[in-house]
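Design review, sub-item: ligand-bound model
Attendees: FS, YL, KQ
YL presented the inputs for the guanosine-5'-monophosphate complex:
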Amino acid sequence: MEKNMNKDIERILFSEEQLKSRVKEVGAEISRDYKDKNPLLVGILKGSVVFMADLMRAVDIPCQIAFLSARSYGLKASSSGKIDMDGDIEYALGAHAQGRHIILVEDILDTALTLYTVSGRIRELNPASVKICALLDKQVSRSIDLHADYKCFDVENEFVVGYGLDYAQDYRNLPYIGVLKREVYSAD
Ligand code: 5GP
Ligand code: MG
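KQ shared the predicted structure:
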């Protein structure tokens, strides 16, 4: 059966144009703050790929990128409360995290369990600093005390997709961010 991704979206929250201009602003902020620091941008797969691709081009100082794989959601639309991390973290970072200024690039901060786990693992590698850059910050009360140092937008506690964010691996390629119709995932 052919799928029409757009018809599964209840409403658009951030258009392609809004995303583009806000990501540029955040990239400029990072460029100012990290001048002469040669930061390492570490994206959390897979949700951060689209954001990372745009963000890194909005950063106009020397930097490098790396990716780590971490999952909390599986196929569902709510957190499983457990984080799986794939692969060797030192290998993924090129074994060069020590002494580096690391910026974790994440699609959305929800319970913050993912970034709490990942940043804890990274701190064990003795970086010079670890900061968090989130595309979206979900407005929920968190038991984990962790905040985004950089963020593009706040979102309400709704399930959003597009611009890298998926539902069961679909919708990542939508160029905008929208709220997924509840009927699409309520069967789960
Ligand atoms: P946390 O560990 O902060 O609870 O969850 C972070 C991860 O959950 C994100 O990287 C993302 O993969 C997923 N997530 C949380 N909220 C949403 C949402 O509204 N939409 C989508 N597509 N994924 C979400
Ligand atoms: Mg995800």
